Hints:
Elements: H1 4-7, E1 21-26, H2 29-44, E2 49-56, H3 58-67, E3 72-76, H4 80-83, H5 95-107, E4 111-113, E5 123-128, H6 129-135, H7 140-148, E6 154-157, H8 158-162, H9 167-174, E7 183-186, H10 191-200, E8 207-211, E9 222-224, E10 237-242, H11 243-248, H12 252-260, H13 265-276, H14 282-292
Parallel strand pairs: 1-2, 6-7, 6-8
Antiparallel strand pairs: 3-10, 4-10, 5-8, 5-9
Amino acid sequence: MAWLALSGMRAPDSATAGSPLVVASKSDTEGALTGAMIAQVLEKLNLPVLRKLGLGPTLIVRNSLLSGEISIYPEYTGNGAFFTGTETDPIWKSPQGAYDTIRRRDAERGLAWLTRAPANNTWLIAVNGDLARREHLTTMTDFAGAVRRGLIRLAASTEFVESPAALPAFEAAYGFALPLNRIISLPGGDTSVTARAAAQGISGVNAGMVYGTDGALAALDLVVMSDPLDAQIVYEVAPVIRQADLARHPEIAPALARVFTRLDAETLRRLNARITVDGDVAEAVAARYLSENGLLP
């Protein structure tokens, strides 16, 4: 991975007196939302902020943090499995274990993980609401039974289909094998496409790859299959900040903890929906939520 080339380098100190804190995010809906929350809280602390929201995919933003080009961004605990090359370690399927592990490993790289949100934005499978109600499908155990009865046609990314941590992990845990001719595999990872296909029955699809906090699930009448056997890696979002910046501004940690401890899955789905379904701007959604809940310092 490209980030490894940077991990041993001495990064420039971005925390010089008076320099702005560079707040970044990935180029996805929830990244823009949580990145905007971080930026707005820091501004309320009267700290100078420079936004680089929507900076890019995971490795670009991660590399930027390691190199000192940015100060803080929201990241998912489960990505620590890939940052450390330990994807098969079962510790990543434990919320506390995943958080403690990446926090400890990243401390060696000069990074600090702040308080995480109690919401698992992991890979999941959602089923068309009509089918789920008719066949009483609510869990991956139920889903496995539907696969065996030949009822499921799945839309998913190629990565989801092929990665040992995704569909194969579900198949191994729940004892089913979805035939390739029952899968429509897409090159991208856009869950809005797979979810819409499941909801609208596009090309006969009735199930789609989704993320746990996707905003459009309720609007599309999709039923998310729960994962009682914890087949998937846990992805809880948390602010990750350079230790030098946190040492200079220790008030950041408690201020952001007040925000992220309240971001459960239901809350994130609702806020994400205001962006993806209602068409609101992430900055406005973040500002309204923080203000309404008294979460600005």
